[in-house]
Design brief:
- The two termini are 25 Å apart.
- The protein is an alpha+beta fold.
- Strands 1-5-4-3-2 form a five-stranded antiparallel sheet, sandwiched between helices.
- β3 and β4 form a beta hairpin.
- The model has no long low-confidence stretch (mean pLDDT 95).
- The protein has three helices and five strands.
- It has one domain.
């Protein structure tokens, strides 16, 4: 079965992981940023398909998604679903 999102996601993964984006740069561009430990503290991850993770916020049960970059591993751009 072909995934119609595969090629756009791969392009987005390449874009997100190009260069040396540090936490401060991601915060300027997307707002709040989480490392892996912070993500585990604030969210329950229910699924992923790079560069996205599906999450449930622990504080209020709101479901949504985050984007992530591989190295360094940061999660950002929370969007409620």
């Amino acid at each position: 079965m072909e995934d119609p999102t595969e090629y756009p996601r791969r392009a987005l993964v390449a874009e997100i992981n190009s260069g040396d984006a540090d936490r401060a740069e991601l915060e300027r561009k997307y707002g709040q940023v989480w490392n892996t430990e912070e993500l585990s503290r604030d969210f329950e991850v229910t699924g992923f398909m790079a560069p996205f993770v599906v999450v449930k916020r622990k504080s209020d049960g709101v479901k949504g998604s985050l984007m992530f970059r591989h190295s360094p591993r940061f999660y950002f751009n929370f969007e409620k679903s």
